[in-house]
C-alpha cells in the first residue's frame, strides 16, 4: 500500500485523519500549508501557497499515490502569492474556478492533482472511522419538537448549499436563527448567542438545533462538514438542545469525547440519513 499524502491546513481535521489512517496501518506523509506542531509526529515537509512544483515533488518523493486535502486555509489573494514555475501553469485554471465559488475552487485543486497522476481521496475515504453513523450517539434523544427543527434545518442547509453558501444552520421552534456562510460554524453559533433570549434556549431550558450537511453540489473529496468537542461546547453555550449531522456525510473528530461532552452538557448528537 502506498503512502497517504495529507496536504494539511490548520485545525484538527488533518491531525485526526493522520491518526486514524496510521492506526489502520497506513504510512503517512504530511505536507503542511499552515498546519500546527503536531506534524512533527509524522514524516513531513512544508510548502507555501504558490509552491506547486515543490509540493508535487515532495509527494512523489514520499511514494504517495493517494492524496487528501484537509484543514483550514484562508481564501488566498492570488495577486500576493509568489508562484513557482508549475504554479504559473495551473494558476489561470485555479483563479477562474475561484471566481465561481469555493466548491468550484476545491474541485479545480483536486483536478490538478489528478492530472498529475495522483488519486485524490476524501477524508471519509482516508479515515472512514471519522464518518458519522446513523442514530442517536449519546444518552440524550431529540424530542418531537427537536425532530421538526432538525428537518427544517436540513432543508435550509441543502437549499442554500445548492448556491454554494454553507453547510450549517440553526433552527429553533421552526424559526431559522442563523445560516453559515464564509465565517464558519463557530462564528455562526456565536451569532445565535447575541439574539434576544426569547428566540433561543438556555442552560435550563434547551431548545433549537444545529444541523450540518454537505452541499448537494460539492465533491465529497473535499470539505465535508465537521463537528468536534468545541462544536458541542459552543452549541451548549447558546442554549441549543442538540446537534444533527448527515449520517455518512459528516465527520466527527474524537467521537467518544464528543458524546461524553454532549451527555455532560445535556445535548443530543444524532446522525440523520439523507432522505434523498
Task: Looking at this protein, list some descriptive labels.
9 helices; 6-stranded mixed sheet; alpha/beta
Description:
This protein is an alpha/beta fold and 276 residues long. The protein has nine helices and 13 strands. It has a six-stranded mixed beta sheet. A five-stranded parallel beta sheet has the order 3-2-1-4-5, sandwiched between helices. Strands 10-12 form a two-stranded parallel sheet. β7 and β8 form a beta hairpin. α3 (85-98) runs antiparallel to α4, α7 packs parallel to α8 and α8 (229-237) packs parallel to α9 (255-265). It is globular. The chain starts with a strand and ends with a strand. The mean pLDDT is 89.
Low-confidence segments: none
**If you average the pLDDT, what whole number results?**
89
**CA gyration radius, whole angstroms:** 19 Å
Helix-residue proportion: 25-40%
Q: Give the biggest sheet.
A: 6 strands, mixed
Percent of residues in beta strands: 15-25%
| Total strand segments | 13
Report, as a whole number of angstroms, the end-to-end distance. 35 Å
The total of helices stands at 9
The helix/strand class is alpha/beta
Strand order of the largest sheet: 6-13-11-9-7-8
Shape: globular
Give, in order, the helices and strands. Answer: EHEEHEHHEHEHEEHEEHEEHE
